[in-house]
Amino acid sequence: MTDIVLGDPFKIVGVKRRRLHEPVADQIRQAIFRGLIVTGHKLPPEREMAEHFQTSRVALREALRALEKEGLITIKRGAGGGAFVADFDNALNALAESLNTVVKLGSAKSAHLTEMRSILEPEITRLATLRGTPEDINAIEAVVVAQEQELEGGELSRKLDMEFHRCIAEAAHNPVMNIVVNAVNQSIRDSILRSKRTEEMRRRVVTYHRNIFEAVRSGNADLAKRVMNSHVVDVQCHLETSDHE
Fold this sequence. Notes:
The chain contains ten helices and four strands, in the order ββαααββααααααα. It has 245 residues and is mainly alpha-helical. The strands form two sheets. The chain has a two-stranded antiparallel sheet with strand order 1-2. A hairpin with a 2-residue loop joins β1 and β2. The N and C termini lie far apart (50 Å).
């Protein structure tokens, strides 16, 4: 919309009218945030919601699509389908998709994601050491043992790498940090999978994971934080080397 200039120093900018679906999306969003409708809850049928919000079904569908894009709801088709309040994984996927879009557009590179990881993951590891429950410790150990078994069997798979970092994030018991670091790790996943696989690199990764786990299990939060930082930096050096080969 064109700016309307009344003369210095006054300047009025035209206010964009809200689309019909936005107030509907706002009300559903706030109901979710306030806990009035919880994870897994199925929203009423479209006709009923349209009548409740006194809007058209077209506007309602736009509102639901906007909320789905944000990761707040999931829309299932077919018998037993409908709109459902999303869980953690949906929120994570929505954030990861946004980061992936930024990466694919060239606005961010793996080095930028690693820089974020180097800020978040060492602190998350420190918190995991301080807050991790016996169940958390067992889950981390199970991943490390599985990776060691793969390596000794000659398999250079990376399928458990993300699981290790996910378990560490879970053990920190901070849902906000958990969502962010997992989204960042998902965004850098493609670069890691494309990088050159060598036994030396796999052995370094698995050794780092074992050392991080041992520091977490022993309760040495400062050591766990330092080793995780070294691990993140080492992986980035590997990615940069692979990119130039």
